[in-house]
Amino acid sequence: MSSIPLLPALIVEFFGSAAAILLSFYAVRYSLALVRLQPNNFIWGFLFYFCSTMAAFALSRGVGHIVRITLVYTDHNDLWKQLSPFSGGFNTLLIVSVAAVTIYYHKGLAAYKAIRSEARKLAEANTKLAASAKQLQTLNTHLEEIVEERTRNLSESEKKFRNFFENSKDIVYFCDKNGQITNINSSGKLLLGFENNPNVINFHELFNDKEALQSYLDGLAEKGFVSDLEMECTGRNGTTRHILLTANALYDKDRSLIGCEGIGKDMTRIKNMTEQLINHEKMASVGQMAAGVAHEINTPLGIILGYTQLMMDDFDENSETHSSLQIMERQIQACRRIVADLLKFSRQTESTKAAIDLNDIVLNVLSVTEHSLNIQNITVNRQLAPDLPRVTGDAEKLQQVMINLFNNAQQAMESGGEIVIFTAAEKNLVRLTVQDSGTGIDSTIKNKIFDPFFTTKDVGKGTGLGLSVTYGIIKEHNGRIEVESPVLDRGSQRELQGSAFHIWLPVTPETAESQKEQD
Amino acid sequence: MRNLNVYITVAGIYLLVSFLMPGPAWALQSHGAPEGICVHQMAHILFAGALAYLYWHTRKSPAIASRGWRYLQYFCGILIAWNLLAFTGHELYELLTPEDFINKDTWSEQLSPPLSGVKIIYYIAKMDHVFMVPALFYLVRSLKTFYREARLEVNK
Prior knowledge:
Chain A is of the alpha+beta class. Chain A has helices at about 5-35, 40-70, 75-165, 185-190, 210-220, 270-315, 320-345, 360-375, 395-410, 465-475, 510-519, and strands spanning about 5, 170-175, 180-185, 225-235, 240-250, 255-265, 355, 380-385, 390-395, 415-425, 430-435, 480-485, 485-490, 495, 500-505.
């Protein structure tokens, strides 16, 4: 195998040394630029030292190689032998220096990283602080506007709920855990009759029914609410009110009951209407029964009366038997009147209806009864509407209605008083009101006064058929009768003692048409 | 304080006795010819170790992961190889004799036949700049990249 020429290796060595020197100084240039750009960066500082020692090494080694090649291959070997230990020593020294710089890099970098980490945290904290300061500044700037806007919203909300609270036609109330009302709306005060002293109302004391009160308290304590609880309470001026109650318990932050809030709907009118409806149904049933009974009794009574009268002819008028038969006749006549009244109530009697003026009926009856009324210190106040439309009716039966009402009024005013008779046209109806200033009718019996045989008089003083007959006659005329006690004065809105019977009768069709034409 | 006084007294007595009892001195150690190559070779090993440490540290640290550091790692790797090659070259040169060279110290200098593994590896090691120059090239690239990134950061 042939020898290997070392010239290529020498060429590589020569130019490689030059390239190494060039590149190492190029590296120094960039590392210096980095240090100048960011003087506080430890890594750039390290790289600068590293590159500098590396450049020194490359320079030492490269120059050594170049000088060696130059001297040795130009017959100056002796000179190179003198220089080579220094060149080699430098090389070794610089290699160790580069290694030392590299080894110390570790500690420096750790310190730099710690400082940089702290600096980053500080910068982040500063950024957050600046953001917070900006936010605070913005908040301060707009605080007044925000407060103003929120106050306005709050005020509108408060106004909305205050209006709801005050304008509600139901009772809206708040009370403490003992039932003491802390706030109640105007409708509540009006319904319960506590306009002037709402601070002393205890809601629990308003319950007339103790069982309902217990249900209310149990519901709040156990479930935290009551829903659609029917309560009866004594409202304004002692009138009984039926309230449909819904309430919620109020708690403090420890979930302890501190009171309640509730809404009560006044169901009195609906309840009365329901009772009236039931009463009408009852009256219709009673009327049917009364008609049947009256028909069955009327015929035997007629026969008994006939035979009694025949027997009376057979005995001397002064005889005891004749006297007994007279008593029998009177009692049979009384029975027949009762039967007749029952038939009138059940509308089974024949009527002769014609267009009549209700004012005339009133005046006719007064012409007969006013004298006896005056004797009992009862004055009659006529408030009769002129040109009152005519109604279709049986004059005789309507006169009986008037007599019955006057009798009732007279009996309610034993020590005198006033009867007001009022007539008026209301659309296609004629209204007649007979109002007295008597004792009035208790609310508990108001729904029973039209029942047959219902009476508050002592035994033997009345049959209890007067108002039943009146009711029957008005129904026969397709009218309506209502009782009001105590009476609300439409002008002063005050409640007056006594009772008022209001009757509405339909206007005669021809009269109604002519009235429309006039309108 | 008391102990210090005792040490000073003992040292004083020792010096006094030394002056009173002179003998041959071995003040300086001589450095023979092999020491130079030994130190140089040790320096190569130290340099390679330092570069290996730098390579390892830059790889494991996520805080300094970027393209510039990757070039620096190339630099470390190639320069470690250069160190090993140079180390090998120096060792092999010690094994060669003047008879292994023809026309020594002339432009026509050759490695004499027969060629052995030692001679071939020495020949390759002679061209160690093939490693050193690329290593320095990557060092420059690395610094250039760092500089570009730092400029961008400063200009942000």
